[in-house]
Amino acid sequence: MRKYIFTALLAVVTSAAAQSTYEAVRLIDTGLTGTARFVGMGGSMSILGADLSVLGVNPAGAALYRSSDLSITGSVTTHKIDADYLGTTLKNDKTVFSFDNVGAMFSYRAASGSLEFINVGFNYKRRNNLQREFAMAGASGGYSQMFQMQQLYNNNPFDITNMSYQHYTSLSYPWLALLGADGGLLFAGEESADGTIIDEGVPMYSPTSLSYRSEERGGVDEVDLNVSFNLNNQVYLGFTVGAHYVDYSRYSVYGEDDAYDPIYTLNNWYDTRGEGIDMKFGIIVRPFYYSSFRIGASVHSPTWYSLTDRMSAAINGQPAEAVINGQLTEYTTGQMDTRSYDYAYGGDYFLDYHLETPWTFNVGAAYTFGDFLALNAEYEYTDYSSASMEYEGGYSMPEMEAEFENNLREVHKFRVGAELMLDKNFSIRCGYNHTTAPYKKSASKYMLSYVDTNTEYLNNFATNNYTAGFGYRGNSFYFDAAYVYTRQEADFYPFYDAEYINPSAAVDDKKSKFVVSVGMRF
């Protein structure tokens, strides 16, 4: 038996918001990207300045330029993720090549007065690279995504025996529950002795194992346009306008098996496209004329995004994958039995909306010892819970405002970096970069949206970056290289159980990144 129900969605209602705090954080977060010199110092050099990457951190750092600059940067990242779910560990490895940075700065000496230099520049960077592959699997531990389908059904029941009717009223019911009912996973109920219907929406199966796999592509790009001013070599001012471009997609498949057969798989397709704009203001001051000591501060406005989400889902009684010898592997025909159903509940859902990210504040200090050692330290503050969203047309999303407040917290970033000149041409660098966790310990993905069928969520912990690098400076040509080791742990939940806290997969995410820049000063 095969049945497909396709729904054309022609209206948007408040309960149909497709976004979540977990999708929004991808756009708020920033990775450690930029020129190899910037990366080699742990992203801590905006007060030392004179590097294209500082345009997006403290725009006043561009005022430290006294010559023009042109550079280009690329990187290769090896991504290793271990996911342990109730004793079953899956390893995920992926290598990604990326074009990270290209920019130019043009420096002009002023004719007279207190204005020493006027600098104008632009810089493109990959703000957040979201490419990765992830898989987890293991014993179900007595939990099932079908419980979440049941809970959604109980909150808004519908006629399980008349699924064709839901074709016309799909925005009135949770899609995940519709998928479960249409896929034969939820019991339609039976009549008791007194004539009442009992056990409606109860799961039909008791899974013994589960699995999840996802493929993510794309990321967030940023182009910064900057103007900066050097006043008497003591006060430096800068202003940057940033244009952001979002191109992110994810495919995921979640499956459950019982002791005898595969039960089902849920396939989800999700992508986000859009643009945003922000502004950054910065100042750096040398408080003592005869000292190289400098202090600085910057403020970043929110990024005002206009975005479009597209999502669709399908449920299938024939899982595509199984765990074989510790790896998530495609089934072959001989490894699986065919259920008597193969269902899909589909149709693309589109949502246009606006996201306003939080304000960001940065302070730092730098000091150079002669011409052989430079030190830079910074602190950055962003309150992720203050982000906000609204529909196209200005209609508010109060349910999302509450979720930002319930799930997200203030994020603190600490960065330190050092550069040692071995001689006039060669230097070595090192740095450390720490970012606190964006999620509260109690954070979870509650299914606010009727159309959202992506039940999984990842609660990231703190991120630590350890960096090292070296550089060569000729008369005009320069070459820089850097290495970054990133470590982040997290809890991954394939679904949310409103009655019990279901187990999570312990995720250990490790990245090794090699960055190379070439450029020219003139």
Which labels suit this protein?
single chain; 522 residues; mainly beta; two-stranded parallel ribbon; 6 helices; 24 strands; 54% strand; disordered N terminus
Structure, described:
- This protein has one domain: Beta Barrel (Porin), CATH 2.40.160.
- Helices cover 9% and strands 54% of the residues.
- Strands 2-3-4-8-9-10-11-17-18-20-21-22-23-24 form a 14-stranded antiparallel β-barrel. Strands 1-15 form a two-stranded parallel ribbon.
- Strand 3 and strand 4 form a beta hairpin.
Order the strands across the largest sheet as they lie in space: 2-3-4-8-9-10-11-17-18-20-21-22-23-24
User: Helix segment count?
Assistant: 6
General form? elongated
- Please identify which CATH superfamily we are dealing with: Outer membrane protein transport protein (OMPP1/FadL/TodX)
Poorly predicted residue ranges: 1-16, 318-345
Write the layout of secondary structure elements.
Elements (H helix, E strand, L loop, with lengths): L1 E5 L14 H8 L7 H5 L28 E17 L2 E22 L5 E15 L2 E8 L5 H11 L7 H4 L8 H8 L7 E2 L5 E2 L10 E23 L3 E23 L4 E24 L8 E7 L3 E13 L4 E4 L2 E4 L11 E5 L2 E8 L3 E10 L3 E11 L4 E4 L6 H10 L2 E12 L4 E10 L21 E17 L3 E17 L11 E17 L1
Parallel strand pairs: 1-15
Antiparallel strand pairs: 2-3, 2-24, 3-4, 4-8, 5-8, 6-7, 8-9, 9-10, 10-11, 10-12, 11-17, 12-16, 13-14, 16-19, 17-18, 18-20, 20-21, 21-22, 22-23, 23-24
